[in-house]
Amino acid sequence: MDTPPKAIAGVSTFVDDRLGAGSFLKRNLRKMFPDHWSFLLGEIALYSFVILLLTGTFLTFWFRPTMGEVMYNGAYEPLKGVMMSEAYASALNISFDVRGGLLIRQIHHWAALLFIAGMVVHMLRVFFTGAYRKPRELNWLIGILLLSLALFEGLTGYSLPDDLLSGAGLRITQGVILSIPLIGTYIQFFLFGGEYPGEDIISRFFTLHILLIPGILLALITAHMILMWVQKHTQMPGKGRTERNVVGAPFYPAFMAKAGAYFLFTFGVLALLGTFAQINPIWLFGPYTPADISAGSQPDWYMGFLEGSLRLMPAWEINLFGTSGGTIPLSVLIPALLPLGLIMTGLALYPFLEQWVTGDRREHHIVDRPRNNPHRTSIGISAMTFYGVLWLLGANDEISANFHIGLYETTIFGRVAVFLGPAIAYFVTYRICLGLQRKDAEIVSHGVESGVIKRMPNGEYIEVHTPPADDILAHMRGKKEIPVIESAADREGIPPKGARSLIGRLRAKMSKAYGTDRVPLEEGHGEEHVAVGAGEHKEGH
Amino acid sequence: MTDNTIDQPEDRVPKRVIGTPPPSEAILKEEPAHKPEALLGVKLQDPESARKAERVVALLFAIAFLAGVGFIASYVIFQVGTLEKTSASNFALGGTLTLALLALAAGITTWVRRIMPKYSMIQERHPMASDSETRESVKETFLAGANESGFVKYKLLRRTLLLAAAPLGLAPIVLLRDLGPLPGTKLRHTVWGEPTKNGKPRRLITEGTGQPIRAADFNSPGGILSVVPEGHEHDLNALAKATLILLKFRPEELKSGTNLNWTHDGIVAYSKICTHVGCPAALYEQTTHHILCPCHQSTFDAADGAKVVFGPAARPLPQLPIGIDEEGYLVAKADFNVPVGPSFWERGDAEKEAREKAEKA
User: Fold this and answer.
1) What is the dihedral of CA A282, A286, A291, A297, to 10 degrees?
2) Could you state, in order of their start, the residue ranges of all structural domains in chain A?
3) Is the pLDDT of residue B143 over 60?
4) Residue B333 — pLDDT band, cuts 50, 70, 90?
5) Which phi and psi angles does A437 have, rounded to 5°?
6) Which of A183, A193, A366, B308 could lock A200 by a disulfide, CB 3.0 to 4.6 Å apart?
7) A contacts of B315 (beta carbons < 8 Å)
8) What are the structural domain ranges in chain B?
9) B190-344 belongs to which homologous superfamily?
């Protein structure tokens, strides 16, 4: 093709004449996107969100978000004649009276699970590789906001069908809101329009779920994308890659096509799950009543850690003013707010705390391999362990039933493990990181085993080592030192200004621990880097 | 992608000496006008294998087409209604949709990987910060604008503007006031304490069947019965606080925690609403008399005033005073003497308050 087809040329000219889109396209059509499998994780979340919007819109065509009582008269025989809320009845109708309704509802639910899962693994990738560092702190904060909002989006959506299971989740939400000191009862009465459950909560959650929260999510996701576009993607260390360039495939045509295919893959897998993996069979649960519950009620996976922390907590409650009020139900308040607050606040502050500790104000576009920043990696794994224990204990009744362990034993185990687990994880991760660094250092300085055994003139057998492949070597040499703030005393024994106070000394100490490279890569073995096949092999030990 | 080389392949043929004709016969023939020129970092695919790949891609796209047609056909063919029909429709629609999407995705991926070139192109980055000249100019513009506007100079203007904004900022919050009524003391009472229409004590009604319970007939030690208040059998707001569990004990089984005056012939009624976060405490273990809430496993000893044995609930399930009416049916003698369900700020140590009241009386 020598000239663009008329249709495209015509439209392009029309748009360019009016908007001057040409210069934008000139700069951006060949925008580079670096390649690494871990860069695809966030895209899963993005595409899941698109699928959520599409399937969710379909569902709203039939769903009726009202709690008025109706007698069910739909296609599902076992519930015929049962009194239920219109919301539940319409959710049943979507499943049994609308062709494809059940499929779309199940895809919607699966997409919600995948949306949050995609966000979480994407966030872990960004954390462990240090991709949140300057200049990307703002995008990191937007990401934390997105994750928090997505949890609320999930919670409000989960409550809409008004079946017995979703009602149990709503009841727990109400109990948690009541526990808030001073204003808890007021918030509860305002949110539910009076006493629980009232007749307003479904329509209110509906508005939040389909308008307010998705609107904010959409705006933030757009901002997230724009920032990523403007700042250009980070890249893994490797051959030819520097802090001043991006090496990869161009947006047009390769990345564009790949992204399109990836969207279809995500959609395809969700359709597969929605077809063959039944999720939330609401017709089995029956309509909601606060008087009943089914045993083994489990929330969606992303709420599991809150469920677990509620289960672990001992029965603490204080009455500040004795019989006249001031009740603080710590057994609800602490587990419901503390882990979530701790994790989200910790995540939001981490880039700034790290900058404060390392004094590193440089821009970073080449990401770290997790092993090369062992303290960060250990902190991350430690936090994951904390979350993981809570999450696991959110299903302690299932664990107890399936593995024949006493129910209370699992709880007591969890109470210990939630503190001990992260500490052990920290230590183990740290050692593993150092071990991996040593392995890298050995490969860089001595090469890789070639499998060739050589006999020396003195009769000794040795294995010949060959230099590693260029790209692998470049990947390993991408390790960068972590800066340490200046804290050593000068000649007169006076420490620098920032390191005199208690906090300053602590900062200096942390900086030293955080930044000191315990396994530096050995340099200066020039002869190792001769090409394979050049004849002279470095003979290792 | 593993072949991340940015180097160009080395020339196998020696470089031509300046002034001599090129080694091939191309000197006379014209070069094709748009021979794919190898841009730096663009490694073209072998045309032969690309041709083969095209056939694979075409096959996948054809499958996607057929599956898409199948989806539309399934919509027409399969109707919904019963569990079986809905299930068949679901499998047909979902199966064809999945196949169409995955085949299309696989086709495009094959196209990218085996027909498009392998890319390893380089783009320069520039520091995010603008240069100091720009910054300086923005700063000056800002200061000039601020001064021109008079916002700094005219104090009264500035202060009254802020004053004007304050109530408007609060307005949205004020508007939310009518979202719900104030709590008042609503959380302290249940319908068990309210008078019935005919002025008689409120009967206990079996949940589900809607039948009142004759004390003489309720004789199932070991089981629990879920009970709702007469006249409010389907009132969810009432049920959220007033639902009961009813148990029968042999007299020697009851311990000091249970108020015997509030029982009738060994029949005890506790609030079913867990004191932790309000789930119905619906599980009962006969041998230990333990009531278990399935949500967070708070465990209560039913024989001992439903005091907490394990779990996060901090208070026992409140006990309801029950008796019988003239026809022998179980009725509530009064409301709970403490608020039921989850704790809240205004609640206070209601148990202690109730005890003190009882001692005075």
Assistant:
1) -30
2) 39-62+98-131+248-284
3) yes
4) very high
5) -65, -40
6) A193
7) 317
8) 37-119, 190-344
9) Rieske [2Fe-2S] iron-sulphur domain (2.102.10.10)
